[in-house]
Amino acid sequence: MRTLILMRHAKAVRAHEADSDETRGLTGRGRREAAAAGAAMEDAGLKPQVALISTAKRTRETAEHGLQNFALEKRFEDALYHAHLEGIWDAFSASDAESVVIVGHNPGIGELVSKLVHQAHDGSKLAREFSGHFPTAAFAAFEIKGDLLRAAGPTLIAAWKPPRDRDDD
Hints:
Elements: E1 2-8, H1 28-43, E2 50-54, H2 57-66, E3 73-77, H3 85-94, E4 99-104, H4 108-120, H5 125-130, E5 139-144, E6 155-160
Parallel strand pairs: 1-4, 2-3, 2-4
Antiparallel strand pairs: 1-5, 5-6
């Protein structure tokens, strides 16, 4: 059995505040929430060995702040920049690590989380929320049985989303 942790990048600056979409960095809130997500992963007992990270600045910064306490190999992959759910699944499948965290973007990350939650038949409140909306800095971790996306037999083992009662900085 393998573990797949899907994490959306944290809150980024608005499009007009950067030279391009790829150069959008994190806000102060984004840096704090990325670190909080990493702490929540640790609290859940997750131990990713490899991080597959989109090459966009906001995903690289999310990994820097959120995965700093994990001893893992980081791989930056152009193909994860706005990848569709199949591309994200393919990146996971191509890795031979037992526990993989993928830091990417919606809609692909959110769609894959939704598909795996549906396949897991998880009726928890958080799982239901994630099947419709996957917010910035959130993560969902699944135990994966099998090799094919349609036959993955996932089990949702941990999930977290940041509280939204902070200032929007």
